[in-house]
C-alpha cells in the first residue's frame, strides 16, 4: 500500500496492520533495484505505523533467498515479519519451512503449495505438525465461509487468511465502453472489489466457534 492508505487504515482500525512489501507482480526473484525499493518501502511502512511486515523472496532454483531475507529482516526490526505465499513456489516446502524458522520469521502464509488451501490441506497440516509452534502456519488461498471450518479443522491452524471481498458496481453514471485503463477482462473498469463486512463477520463467527 501507499503510505497514504496505511495512514488512513491505521486511523480506522484497532487491529494490528501488517504491510505487504511487493514491488511488482510476477515471480519472487528480485533485481538489485527492486531490493532497493523493498527496503525503502519497509522504512516508509515503519514510519507510518505498520505493526508488522510481509514479504517473500526466492532464488532462481526455487529456494528461500536467505541472503536477501536476512537483509530485509534487518530493516524490518523490531517488527514481526510474515513470509507470504512465495512459499507456495518453493522446490521443497519442508526444507523451506526450516529455513524460515532459522531466519526468524514469525508466520508463513501458504495454500499448501496447491491452487487453494483446501487443495493443499494435507501439506498445510504436515507443515503445522513440523513447525511445532516454532512458526505460525497460516492457511490462505480460496478460503470462504463455505470451506473455512473444514480448513481449520483439517489443518489444526489457529489463524487463517482470506480476502473476504465482493464486487461493488461503480457509482459512475457516464461510462465509456471503448476505453480500458490497463485492466484485464476479469477486472472490468466499472466494478470495484471491496472488503465485505458481512463475510468478515461470518468468517469470524465460524473461526471463533472452532478456535
From TrEMBL:
Identify the GO cellular component terms for this protein: cytoplasm; nucleus
Q: Which GO terms describe its molecular function?
A: copper ion binding
Subcellular locations according to the entry: Cytoplasm; Nucleus
Leader sequence residues: none
Keywords (alphabetical) are:
Copper, Cytoplasm, Metal-binding, Nucleus
Whether NADP counts among this entry's keywords is no
Q: Which Gene3D superfamilies match?
A: Copper homeostasis (CutC) domain
Q: Which residues cross the membrane?
A: none
UniProt entry tagged with the keyword Metal-binding: yes
Q: Which family does it belong to?
A: Belongs to the CutC family.
Report the function annotation for this chain: May play a role in copper homeostasis. Can bind one Cu(1+) per subunit.
Oligomer status and interactors: Homotetramer.
Q: What is this protein called?
A: Copper homeostasis protein cutC homolog
Organism (species): Zapornia atra
Amino acid at each position: 500500500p501507499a503510505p497514504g492508505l496505511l495512514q488512513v487504515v491505521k486511523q480506522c482500525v484497532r487491529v494490528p496492520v501488517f504491510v505487504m512489501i511487493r514491488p511488482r507482480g510476477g515471480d519472487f526473484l528480485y533485481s538489485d533495484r527492486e531490493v532497493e525499493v523493498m527496503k525503502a518501502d519497509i522504512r516508509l511502512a515503519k514510519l507510518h505505523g505498520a505493526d508488522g511486515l510481509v514479504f517473500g523472496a526466492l532464488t532462481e532454483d526455487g529456494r528461500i533467498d536467505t541472503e536477501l531475507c536476512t537483509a530485509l529482516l534487518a530493516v524490518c526490526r523490531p517488527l514481526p515479519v510474515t513470509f507470504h505465499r512465495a512459499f507456495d513456489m518453493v522446490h521443497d516446502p519442508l526444507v523451506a519451512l526450516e529455513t524460515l524458522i532459522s531466519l526468524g520469521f514469525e508466520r508463513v502464509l501458504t495454500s499448501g503449495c496447491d491452487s487453494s488451501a483446501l487443495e493443499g490441506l494435507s501439506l498445510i497440516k504436515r507443515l503445522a505438525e513440523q513447525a511445532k509452534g516454532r512458526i505460525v502456519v497460516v492457511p490462505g488461498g480460496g478460503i470462504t465461509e463455505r470451506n473455512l471450518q473444514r480448513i481449520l479443522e483439517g489443518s489444526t491452524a489457529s489463524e487463517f487468511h482470506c480476502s473476504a471481498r465482493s464486487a461493488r458496481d461503480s457509482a459512475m453514471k457516464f461510462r465509456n465502453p471503448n476505453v480500458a485503463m490497463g485492466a484485464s477482462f476479469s477486472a472490468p473498469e466499472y466494478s470495484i472489489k471491496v472488503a465485505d463486512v458481512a463475510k468478515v463477520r461470518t468468517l469470524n463467527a465460524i473461526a471463533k466457534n472452532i478456535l
